[in-house]
């Protein structure tokens, strides 16, 4: 089966990944666009994992003030080189992350940043909720794990669903940019201000 070049162009436009990578993905997926996009996402994620240990001493700090002037975000996004730190795609990613933080109000970057006592407290609450359910302990443990996973998806930026695409997490979005730009990119820190909220 020959590769449908119109799908290759569409995939390139959608992801920004090289024509060659897009062509390989479309070919591997037998001209199934959704499958090809999924393959690219997986490759991007693998590439991101392989670069995760590389130092990110460069980057930029971005800010966002919501139009009503009631919400503000400051974000430090790290990368490996000054060149990428000034790149249009990198800066566009920073803008999207600022919007995500403003809209979805995450409390932490990832679950690794949540203090152990906070996680224990959550587990305790979920355990209490299930105590009188009559379910066996192993089932309760699974339910508690499921509730914790949901909690992470709400309070951790990387676990949150991207507000512009409900099929993608923020971690996936960053992995895509790592795949495209060829450098490790990490969210170093952020702070979100809202008028009337305690600091």
Q: Assign the CATH superfamily of the largest domain.
A: Elongation factor Ts, dimerisation domain
Q: Please report the distance between the alpha carbons of the first and last residues.
A: 59 Å
How much of the sequence lies in strands comes to 15-25%
Total number of beta strands: 5
Give a written overview of the molecule.
- The protein is of the alpha+beta class and 199 residues long.
- The chain has 3 domains: 5-51, Helicase, Ruva Protein, domain 3; 58-110 and 156-194, Tetrahydropterin Synthase, Chain A (2-Layer Sandwich); 115-154, no CATH class.
- The chain is 54% helix and 17% strand.
- A 3-stranded antiparallel sheet has the order 1-2-5.
- The model has no long low-confidence stretch (mean pLDDT 86).
Chain-wise SSE layout:
Elements (H helix, E strand, L loop, with lengths): L4 H11 L3 H10 L4 H19 L6 E8 L5 E9 L2 H4 L2 H17 L11 H15 L6 H19 L5 E2 L2 E5 H12 L4 E9 L5
Antiparallel strand pairs: 1-2, 2-5, 3-4
Helix pairs in contact: 1-2, 2-3, 3-8, 5-8, 6-7
Features:
three-stranded antiparallel β-sheet; 199 residues; Tetrahydropterin Synthase, Chain A; alpha+beta; single chain; 8 helices; 54% helix; Helicase, Ruva Protein, domain 3
């Amino acid at each position: 089966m020959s590769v449908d070049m119109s799908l290759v162009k569409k995939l390139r436009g959608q992801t920004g990944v090289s024509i060659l990578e897009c062509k390989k993905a479309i070919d591997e997926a037998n001209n199934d666009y959704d499958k090809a996009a999924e393959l690219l996402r997986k490759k991007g994620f693998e590439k991101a994992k392989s670069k995760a240990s590389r130092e990110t001493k460069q980057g930029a700090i971005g800010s966002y003030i919501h139009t009503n002037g009631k919400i503000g975000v400051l974000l430090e996004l790290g990368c490996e080189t000054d060149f990428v730190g000034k790149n249009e795609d990198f800066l566009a990613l920073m803008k999207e992350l600022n919007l995500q933080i403003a809209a979805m109000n995450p409390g932490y970057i990832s679950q690794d940043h949540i203090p152990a006592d906070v996680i224990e407290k959550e587990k305790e609450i979920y355990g209490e909720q299930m105590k009188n359910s009559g379910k066996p302990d192993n089932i309760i443990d699974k339910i508690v794990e499921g509730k914790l996973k949901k909690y992470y998806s709400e309070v951790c930026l990387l676990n949150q669903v991207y507000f512009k695409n409900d099929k993608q997490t923020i971690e996936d979005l960053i992995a895509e940019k790592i795949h495209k730009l060829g450098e490790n990119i990490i969210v170093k820190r952020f702070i979100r201000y809202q008028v009337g909220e305690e600091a």
